[in-house]
């Protein structure tokens, strides 16, 4: 039985993904020599696909198809530096895993200095909320911890009254806030795909409302549900109810930190889902905390001064919740192409001082390249990012050989799931493809792994040009051409460069290719079409780089 038949037979009995490393799940068979080119029949199909695609989309392509060791089998402009869009999340999420490990978690805490008056249930002393940039805190998918969990822990200790304003802190030596990254275009300000980034993160720093028509024409629409819970306290309802079934509602962040609901809805429109960006995450946190305290039976006297603790009072952790494991967050961020998630994971790994430079250095260290890459953020929302297809393929081949990232290929969405939902048909089963998409205005990218009987291929396709919808359809087609008769990617795939003789040294890397200046313009971001009533606008502020928590502290799209 050859290596790939053996690997395929082992997949069905392999242990679940969350658990031991790949090497511990399945023993590796001996390595084999990489094929220098694609099989003749497959090469003919790929050549034909490329000729047809260039006629339909133009020549703004960079493509690299390699084997699992990173050896180039087929390419076009493989060394051209191009805008990678959300495929940058491959770098940032793998970097976080490499630095922190898959079982890493991050905590959110309520801290206090004082004592509890057991008779009245009043906390005598000061208290504060410690926020550490957990992208899953009150996340819309229900994956992470809830503020109510913190309030319930306070109530379980007998606390019935808190006094004084909310103080927000972080475990890092920086202000607990959130800001708009300077590497992102100001045109994206206010978009749900580009929320504010920082330690203060709640519900991905967006607002969601379920809105019903008013009781009569001319009345204000009714807010049926709000997320995060309690956010309706800072919603300014400026919308109206009209005759008809249509609806044009939007949420607009205001400069005073509130959010305006504007537009109109028909009296027969039914319930509408409206989303928008938060203008002031600190204010959103305050009203959400007040709501969950009330739910837990705790009175919060916000306007009262803080109670002075006794001289013998000690600092205590009054309540604490933890994020899910990092490997689960990585899978979620890549599946949803979540920009705020990728940015926060980068800061978990690299801290808040020059995180993009740290990410770039990590990629260079893994690939052995000193050029061919320029990174300005961790999500790929920046149009100033540049990566060559060959470098991306090399990274994908080598990152599974590193400590903590052995399972990384299986944390990318499979065909038919997440951002690969449209890649459902044309494959024998799910898991033949594990890949990441990227979309900006004038950019369509798709990069990842593809299983075939003769081995696992790495396919990287970047398109920088005007016909991105046609380009995306062509990228789907290329993966179907290569993977139509494919197999589920084996868990024991022998990634990485070949070993030289009997030593642990690897071959000298190919001399790096200098970054070339491309002629692609800087079109505005073009996210996937949002659901009706889900857009928002806001006049841009004056941006500033917010030095972004350090990985050493023991704390718990339109891309995609």
How many helices? The count is 11
Cα Rg: 25 Å
Task: Return the CATH topology of the largest domain.
Answer: Beta-lactamase
Helix content: 10-25%
Shape summary = globular
The fraction of residues assigned to DSSP E strands is 15-25%
- Biggest β-sheet: strands ordered side by side in the sheet: 2-1-20-19-18
CATH top level of the largest domain is: Alpha Beta
| Tally of discrete structural domains | 3
Q: Structural class of the helices, strands and pairings?
A: alpha+beta
Largest sheet: 5 strands, antiparallel
Question: Can you walk me through this structure?
Answer:
The protein is of the alpha+beta class and 560 residues long. The protein folds into three domains: 3-13 and 40-102 and 325-483, Beta-lactamase; 107-179 and 281-322, 3-Layer(bba) Sandwich (D-tyrosyl-trna(Tyr) Deacylase, Chain: A), CATH 3.50.80; 203-277, no CATH class. It has eleven helices and 20 strands. The protein has helices at residues 3-11, 22-25, 40-57, 88-100, 147-156, 281-295, 326-336, 339-350, 355-367, 389-398, 468-483; strands at 61-66, 72-76, 107-117, 122-130, 161-163, 168-169, 206-212, 222-227, 235-237, 240-242, 247-253, 259-266, 272-277, 299-301, 314-322, 373-374, 386-387, 433-440, 443-452, 455-464. A five-stranded antiparallel β-sheet has the order 2-1-20-19-18, with helices on both faces. The chain is globular, with a radius of gyration of 25 Å.
């Amino acid at each position: 039985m050859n290596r790939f038949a053996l690997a395929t037979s082992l997949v069905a009995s392999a242990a679940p993904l969350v658990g031991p490393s790949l090497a511990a799940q399945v023993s590796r068979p001996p390595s084999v020599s990489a094929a220098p080119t694609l099989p003749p029949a497959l090469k003919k199909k790929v050549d034909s696909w490329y000729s047809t695609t260039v006629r339909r989309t133009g020549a703004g392509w960079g493509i690299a198809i390699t084997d699992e060791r990173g050896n180039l089998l087929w390419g076009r402009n493989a060394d051209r530096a191009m805008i990678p869009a959300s495929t940058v999340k491959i770098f940032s999420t793998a970097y976080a895993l490499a630095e922190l490990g898959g079982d890493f978690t991050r905590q959110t805490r309520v801290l206090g200095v004082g004592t509890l008056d057991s008779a009245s249930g009043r906390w005598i002393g000061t208290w504060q909320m410690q926020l550490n940039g957990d992208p899953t805190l009150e996340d819309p998918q229900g994956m992470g911890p809830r503020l109510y969990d913190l309030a319930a822990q306070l109530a379980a200790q007998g606390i019935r009254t808190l006094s004084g304003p909310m103080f927000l802190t972080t475990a890092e030596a920086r202000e607990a806030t959130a800001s708009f990254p300077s590497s992102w275009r100001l045109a994206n300000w206010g978009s749900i795909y580009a929320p504010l980034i920082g330690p203060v993160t709640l519900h991905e720093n967006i607002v969601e409302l379920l809105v019903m028509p008013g009781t009569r024409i001319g009345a204000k629409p009714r807010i049926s549900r709000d997320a995060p819970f309690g956010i309706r306290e800072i919603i300014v309802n400026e919308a109206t109810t009209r005759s008809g079934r249509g609806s044009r509602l939007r949420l607009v962040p205001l400069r005073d930190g509130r959010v305006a609901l504007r537009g109109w809805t028909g009296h027969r429109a039914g319930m509408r889902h409206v989303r928008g960006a938060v203008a002031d995450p600190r204010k959103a946190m305050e009203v959400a905390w007040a709501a969950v305290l009330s739910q837990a039976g705790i009175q919060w006297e916000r306007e009262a001064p803080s109670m002075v603790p006794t001289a013998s009072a000690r600092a205590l952790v009054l309540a604490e919740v933890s994020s899910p494991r990092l490997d689960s967050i990585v899978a979620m961020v890549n599946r949803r192409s979540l920009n705020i998630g990728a940015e926060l994971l980068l800061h978990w790994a690299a801290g808040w001082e020059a995180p993009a430079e740290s990410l770039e250095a990590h990629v260079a260290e893994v690939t052995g390249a000193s050029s061919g890459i320029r990174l300005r953020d961790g999500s790929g929302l920046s149009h100033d990012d540049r990566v060559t297809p060959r470098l991306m393929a090399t990274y994908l081949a080598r990152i599974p050989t590193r400590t903590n990232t052995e399972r990384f290929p299986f944390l990318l969405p499979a065909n038919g799931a997440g951002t690969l939902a449209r890649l459902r048909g044309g494959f024998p089963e799910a898991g033949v493809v594990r890949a990441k998409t990227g979309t900006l205005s004038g950019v369509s990218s798709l990069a990842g792994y593809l299983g075939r009987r003769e081995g696992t291929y790495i396919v990287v396709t970047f398109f920088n040009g005007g016909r991105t919808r046609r380009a995306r359809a062509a990228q789907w087609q290329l993966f179907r051409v290569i993977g139509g008769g494919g197999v589920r990617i084996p868990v024991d795939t022998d990634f990485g460069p070949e070993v030289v003789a009997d030593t642990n040294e690897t071959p000298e890397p190919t001399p790096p290719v200098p970054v070339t200046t491309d002629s692609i313009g800087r079109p505005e971001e073009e996210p996937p079409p949002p659901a009706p009533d889900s857009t928002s606008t806001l006049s841009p502020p004056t941006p500033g780089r917010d030095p972004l928590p350090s990985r050493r502290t023991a704390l718990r799209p339109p891309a995609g």
